[in-house]
């Protein structure tokens, strides 16, 4: 019997696979996600703010809760999609429920809400963990002791377990059982593959860090996941000095991805402001954590520019590398800093945004 021919023999040699045309966001998912999008003015009038809490304090508590989710997720080795989904559940819940205690009603603690959101996200993303492992990880992160031994018959174990199971129904009710989440990480990777830059490690890590850092903010309540992914690609391309070509019919790349440049800059400016004003202040609860939140590859704010109408534009700059700085101090020669160009809204290519290179640390 003659040997069977390989299934790849019919393919021409050295010919890459044809790129698929980017699909527009699913209409049903887009409509469902639009119900959870708010304006910046509406984000300043959340239930907690209406009950007397300052917006800065609420942002700080949100950051602590999502930081708790991330630390527990890392300890349980959960995928990034699950952590992103839990952060979205966390932020959406706080648009309906206040963090301020009321007479005869104690508000839900942000650690308890974070644990419940993560428990629900593991089911939605089909990355379930045993309840025992989840409770032990929550106890260790809450007490800031990664080696803490927890007995299954202890009071703390059963308190965490019963609290998570009880508040799961409350979380589902406040979310209106809307559990379909289109994670920006997945859409970002599809964009990277479309432009065949997914093997560019520096670009990929910078874009991924942007999306991951956005989870600690309220950006998921301000922009759609597709816009967040496009903004991450935009900021990473500026940082890595990568330009994407126009389509054959002359459209810029963001139009090909069905995103407006105005929305992209809106998301970038929001993240730039959050890089400058970190929600978790040094010395406060959650400032020193077991694991790091952000990646060193994330762009940071360089300077502000005031436009003619009085609005501010925040410019993104590459992160500083401490190890590179130490080498420069020990060497005789030093490089001069380069100026940072302003955003060019009419430009159809993504320009470089600084010459200093940052290194992504593991």
Automatic annotation (TrEMBL):
GO terms for molecular function: cyclin-dependent protein serine/threonine kinase regulator activity. Keywords: Cyclin. Belongs to the cyclin family. Cyclin C subfamily. GO terms for biological process: regulation of transcription by RNA polymerase II. Residues 314-324, 341-356 have a biased composition (Basic and acidic residues). It comes from the Eukaryota. The keyword Magnesium does not apply. Residues 1-27, 301-362 are annotated as: Disordered. Transmembrane segments: none annotated. This is RNA polymerase II holoenzyme cyclin-like subunit. Residues 301-311 have a biased composition (Polar residues). InterPro entries: Cyclin-like_dom (IPR013763), Cyclin-like_sf (IPR036915), Cyclin/Ssn8 (IPR043198), Cyclin_N (IPR006671). The keyword Hydrolase does not apply. SUPFAM superfamilies: Cyclin-like (SSF47954). Residues 67-173, 186-273 form the Cyclin-like domain.
């Amino acid at each position: 019997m003659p040997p069977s021919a390989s299934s790849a023999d019919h393919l021409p040699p050295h010919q890459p696979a044809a790129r698929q045309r980017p699909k527009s966001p699913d209409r049903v998912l887009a409509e469902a996600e639009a119900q959870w999008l708010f304006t910046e003015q509406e984000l300043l009038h959340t239930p907690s703010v209406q009950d007397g809490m300052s917006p800065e304090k609420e942002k700080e508590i949100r950051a602590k809760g999502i930081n708790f989710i991330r630390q527990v997720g890392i300890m349980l080795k959960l995928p990034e999609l699950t952590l992103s989904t839990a952060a979205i559940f966390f932020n959406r819940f706080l648009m309906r429920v206040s963090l301020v205690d009321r007479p005869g009603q104690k508000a839900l603690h942000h650690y308890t809400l974070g644990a419940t959101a993560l428990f629900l996200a593991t089911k939605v993303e089909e990355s379930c963990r045993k309840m025992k492992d989840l409770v032990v990880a929550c106890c260790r992160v809450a007490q800031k002791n990664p080696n803490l031994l927890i007995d299954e018959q202890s009071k703390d174990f059963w308190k965490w377990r019963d609290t998570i199971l009880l508040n799961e129904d409350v979380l589902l009710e406040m979310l209106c059982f809307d559990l379909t989440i289109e994670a920006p990480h997945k859409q970002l990777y599809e964009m990277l593959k479309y432009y065949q830059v997914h093997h560019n490690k520096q670009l990929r890590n910078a874009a991924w860090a942007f999306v991951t850092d956005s989870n600690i903010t309220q950006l998921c309540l301000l922009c759609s996941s597709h816009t967040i992914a496009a903004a991450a690609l935009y900021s990473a391309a500026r940082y890595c000095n990568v330009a994407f070509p126009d389509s054959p019919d002359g459209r810029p790349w963001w139009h090909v991805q069905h995103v407006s440049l105005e929305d992209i800059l809106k998301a970038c400016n929001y993240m730039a402001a959050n890089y400058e004003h970190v929600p978790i202040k040094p010395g406060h609860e959650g400032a020193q954590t077991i694991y790091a939140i952000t990646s060193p590859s994330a762009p940071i704010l360089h300077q502000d520019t005031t436009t003619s109408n009085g609005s501010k534009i925040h410019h993104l700059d590459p992160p500083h590398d401490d190890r590179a700085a130490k080498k420069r101090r020990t060497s005789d020669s030093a490089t001069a800093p380069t100026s940072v160009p302003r955003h060019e809204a009419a430009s159809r290519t993504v320009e470089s945004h600084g010459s200093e290179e940052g290194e992504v640390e593991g």
